[in-house]
Amino acid sequence: MSELIRLDPYGPRNEEMFLSEMNQLTSHHIFGCPEYGQIWAEWEEATEVEDLPFLHVGLFKRLSLKTASAKYSAQRVLHSSSTTGTSSKIQLDTYSSEMQSISSNKILADYLGAGKAPK
Questions:
Q1: Which of 25-29, 89-93, 99-103 shows the lowest mean pLDDT across its residues?
Q2: Where are the domains positioned within the chain?
Q3: pLDDT attached to residue 74
Q4: Is 18 left (phi over 0), alpha (psi -120 to 50) or beta?
Q5: Would you say 1 and 25 are in contact if contact means Cβ atoms under 8 Å apart?
Q6: Cβ-defined contacts of 16-19 (< 8 Å, 24+)
Q7: Would you give the distance in Å from CA 87 to the centre of its chain?
Q8: 90 SS3 class
Q9: What's the pTM value of the predicted model, to 2 decimals?
Q10: What 3-state DSSP class applies to 22?
């Protein structure tokens, strides 16, 4: 998501860039996570955003979906609030953690402003 992170969080969406990066990310996870690869064994690159694969959030309560490669490995696990009794577990590598932090800051800055709050 290297290029998408540079865009304004609530600006116009670049569908072509989004689709390209999501196809790359999907391929990365299919080849790096055996469980994900089994779920999407017949996946072909999407030509429309609507054709991108998705997973129901409940699956993250039942499976430990962890993508590993020479470049990335899980560094920490995010747990959901588990309002249903079982928490979801999301495996994050360093790069994903950095992207999450950058995107959260951009969203907050857009909503609250980037400058310091007055005293």
A1: 89-93
A2: 4-112
A3: 65
A4: alpha
A5: yes
A6: 18/49, 19/46, 19/47, 19/48, 19/49, 19/52
A7: 18
A8: strand
A9: 0.75
A10: helix
Closest CA to 7 of 114, 110, 113: 110
Q: Are 98 and 72 in contact (CB under 8 A)?
A: no
**Cβ distance 47 to 39 under 8 Å?**
no
Within a 10 A sphere around the Cβ of 67, how many other Cβ atoms? 21
- Torsion sign (Cα): 81, 27, 54, 109: positive
Q: What pLDDT score was predicted for residue 1?
A: 55
Residue type, 53: P
Collect all residues with Cβ–Cβ distance below 8 Å to 12 and sequence separation of at least 6: none
* C-alpha–C-alpha distance, residues 103 and 101, integer Å: 6
* End-to-end alpha carbon distance in the chain: 36
Lookup result for tokens 């969406």: 13
